[in-house]
Prior knowledge:
CATH architecture of the largest domain: 3-Layer(aba) Sandwich
Structural class: alpha/beta
Order of helices and strands: EHEHEHHEEHEHHHEEHEHEEHHEHEEHEH
CATH superfamily of the largest domain: LarA, N-terminal domain
Radius of gyration: 22 Å
Number of helices: 15
CATH class of the largest domain: Alpha Beta
Helix content: 25-40%
CATH topology of the largest domain: Rossmann fold
Strand content: 15-25%
Low-confidence stretches: 425-429
Amino acid sequence: MEFPRLYLVQQNFPDRSVKDIPGTVQKELKQSGLASKLKPGAKVAIGVGSRGITNIAMIVRAVVDFWKSEGMKPFIFPAMGSHGAATAEGQADVLAHYGIHEATMGCPILSSLEVVPLGRTAEGLEAFLDKNAFDSHGVMLVGRVKWHTDFAGKIESGLFKMMAIGLGKFAGAQTYHTYAYTMGLEKVIRSVGRQVLKSGKILGGLAILEDANHNTGQLTAVPVDGMEQKEEELLALVKSWMGHVPAKHLDILILDQIGKPISGAGMDTKVANRSVNGAYNPWPDTPKFERIYVRDLHPNSYGNGVGLGMADVVHDRLLEKIDWTPTWINSLTASTPSAIRTPIHFSTDRECLERIMPTVGKFDMRRVSIGWIRNTMELSRAAISENLFDEFKANPALEILEGPFDFPFQEDGQLSEMLAAESELEHAH
């Protein structure tokens, strides 16, 4: 089968990276007045989630150092729902994989699934709080504010969601996602978040915003007063920074990898334009894709293959790496069983593409438009088929690095790892 030739392109997104992360964290937290509510010697619980956040270990260490400088006794706890296979050990292990453990943080890591009930919201939802956090003198959240993969609203993924679902651990995550099926997740997040705030345990949070290059673009201390409104403002800002695949419409989008460090849904649904419930192209103002091919699972996904159900075809190597226990626990907890359906799959990249290309309504395979990215978080570098040359040549934010060249198949039918970083290739060998 003949394939279209490719160009390697670079998307030049604005660089918003924070130059001095520890210094910025210290400055933000000092100005926020978060420490004024506690006396020296107080135990401060720092909640950290499971997302692949750039510089997360450096950021969390700076938060720990701030509380120590104020004479407090900080400890870290995993603020996660069903991640880490919904076990205390698994959740501590997720943090350790990001470099967050006692030796690097200089404080204890307390991981437990035990929760304390905080009463019911007006809508009848019972709120929960991690017991170690409840037994502290104050809780601070460290999390990334971003768009959510399942819905669109004024508050999506961030400190409020972490407060609702992450602090409630597995017990909370199960309850909240069940209610969300009929109420909608944004309403659940706000309802439970407000109930958690009533406990008086929350001091505030540090909101992390990332730019389209996946750099730390802003660090903002968010005091508990006005937390809901502030998060709305931060979400609106970070949505305006969002990157997209550099083509308005593709017949096939190739993803090198999916996984939990990339997105809670395995792939960012608002980049891939898929719904966790199976709908194609549900998000307006986002490039449209007819088919999605996924080649592999991110090595830091712990075998969690959530998201494979949004693909149309996957490589056998992806299925071989899936650990189905954490995968089904995560999917069923989130009430999204379609997100882990197994698509058709073959043993080589060439066969996967040759099988799916004739399904997009074109007889000449050289006319099939193809885009290839590393994953839905890394959008600065991409390969785009030559048949879209006029479109991407007219894009001032795009730089052509190489091409046109033939699809880089090796003799065994596998693609060369053209978009992988050198460090990843070393890790693979």
